[in-house]
Design goal:
mainly alpha, Fumarate Reductase Cytochrome B subunit
Length: about 200
Amino acid sequence: MQRDYSTRRYTWVAIILHWVMALGIATLVVMGLAMTHLKLEPTRLFELYQLHKSIGITVFLAAFLRLAWRLSHRPPDLPEAMPAVEKAAATSGHLLLYAFLFALPVTGWALVSASVFNIPTVLYGIVPWPDLPLLPTLDGKAPVEALLKLVHAYGAYALMALVAVHAAAAFRHHFITGDDVLMRMLPHHRQLPAVPSPTKEHSP
C-alpha cells in the first residue's frame, strides 16, 4: 500500500510565501550589513534605509499570511522514521523562526518610530506607513533609539543563525538522511516518489 504524494507536499500558497520570505530575509540581511558596515553617500544610504523598511514590512505581512495559512492548512507530517527528539527540535525551530519573523520587524518598526530624525516611512515610495503609538512623542528619544538599534541588530544576527540552522537541517535531510523533507517545499512540478505505508514488518 502506498501513500498519496500530495499529503507529503506543502500547498502552493505555503511554498510561495515561504520563498518570498526567504528571499526577503536574504535581501534584508545584505542591506542591513551594507548600511552598517559600508561608507555610503547620504542619499544612497537614505534610499537603502527606506527600501529596507519597505521589504521588512513586506516580510512582516507575509509572515502573518503564512501563519494564517499554516493554521488553516495542516502541513505535511514529518517522516515517520525521524526520531522523536528531531521532531521536537524541528517544531521548536519553526516556532522560533515565526517568533523572530514577527518580533524583528516590530523592533525595526519601533526603532523607526523612536528615531530622533522623525523620517516618515513610505513603503516603496507609494504607501505611507504609520509610526507605532507613543514612541514618536517620547522625551529624550535618543537612548530609546540606541537601545532599539541594539535589540534589532542582535535580533537580526540571531535570525541569521536560525535560518542557517534551518537550511542546514533541510540539506541534511536531502543529502544525508535521504528523505523528502526538502523536496516537499521546492517549487517543482515533479511528483514525489510514493513511499510504502508502515506495516508491522517495518515497524521498529
